[in-house]
Amino acid sequence: MKHHKLLKEASRIIEPYCISNGGKFRLRDHDPADTNSVKNKQAAQSLLEDGIVCLSHMQEKLYAQDRWALLLIFQAMDAAGKDGAIKHVMSGVNPQGCEVHAFKSPSVEELNHDYLWRNHKVVPERGKIGIFNRSYYEEVLVVRVHPTFLRAQKLPDRLVTKHIWEERYEDINAFERYLTRNGIVIRKFFLHVSKEEQKRRFIERLEDSKKNWKFSMADVQERSFWKDYQEAYDEAIQQTATKHAPWYIVPADNKWFTRLVVAAAILEALNDLNLAFPDVEKSKRKELAAVRASLLAEKD
Ligand code: ATP
Ligand code: MG
Q1: Which residues of 245-260 are buried (b: 16+ CB within 10 A; e: fewer)?
Q2: Residue with CA closest to ligand 1 atom 14
Q3: 258 CA distance to ligand 2 centroid (A)?
Q4: Nearest CA residue ID for atom 29, ligand 1
Q5: Tens of pLDDT along 120-173?
Q6: CA diameter of the chain
Q7: Going from the N-terminus, what domains does the chain have, and what CATH number goes with each?
Q8: Ligand nearest to the CA of residue 114, numbered in listed order
Q9: 140 alpha carbon to ligand 2 midpoint, in Å?
Q10: Is residue 105 within 8 Å of 222, Cβ to Cβ?
Q11: How many whole angstroms separate alpha carbon 267 and alpha carbon 82?
């Protein structure tokens, strides 16, 4: 498919899922099984293939130009398909220009610092795409759902008040605005899987020996907090969806559609930067021509 047609289709596909103003956002108004009139898996795969080629060209320019960086944040309930989406969508990208960081339960060293510390250290440098597989958003999600995690953070007592979540949204927004003003473009993805589909995927992990390794008891325990997580996500998205760092509520019951939406959103973000290979100055071009001539003139 032609470049501009592909970008137009990308815009159409992501439009209903992009939240840039939290307002009265509610997850329950979004259907995890939606496919936005993309006919079937085959149609999606063929679009995705074209998208991945386009993405790899844009990434080359991002890298060569060395001005902007792209930070992609992935959040989801377990088994929503974060890993698969990251793997497929980035499959055409030069590994040198891309970094993935997974944020798990914090280490002792990490707990001795402020919570953004471990995130800020690995924000992508100019020219690169950085992927956060979970992120500082866990600080207003899992940490909110399980107060024991907050206690483990060793904050001075007087700083832990009923306003703590509001304060965290404010700090996260300030951090994202700061990064944006430094040329780091932020896009956030919530992979929205239904409770029924999660159950189906867990059962598959239990029944298929090749998937057994993915199963964890902790995931089933977290499932029992489903409602608390949905509420925490509702509020986090309401409070942190902005024009410069929008959330995409990606339907995740069909993996083929999830991947397409993620790829389309990345394409649109990169396209918006008007990337181009850096211009070489006239004097430099002369120098290059001279070197070329002398190489061609070499005897052996
Ligand atoms: P997978 O798809 O492999 O299950 P995952 O992202 O769920 O990927 P896990 O190792 O299963 O990875 O889980 C990491 C866990 O760490 C998650 O349950 C997450 O909520 C938790 N976590 C991340 N950040 C924090 C934090 N700041 N405080 C407490 N727990 C956290
Ligand atoms: Mg997990």
Answers
A1: bbbbbbbbbbbbbbbb
A2: 104
A3: 18
A4: 105
A5: 999 999 999 999 999 999 999 999 999 999 999 999 999 999 999 999 999 999
A6: 79
A7: 3-297 (3.40.50.300)
A8: 1
A9: 17
A10: no
A11: 18
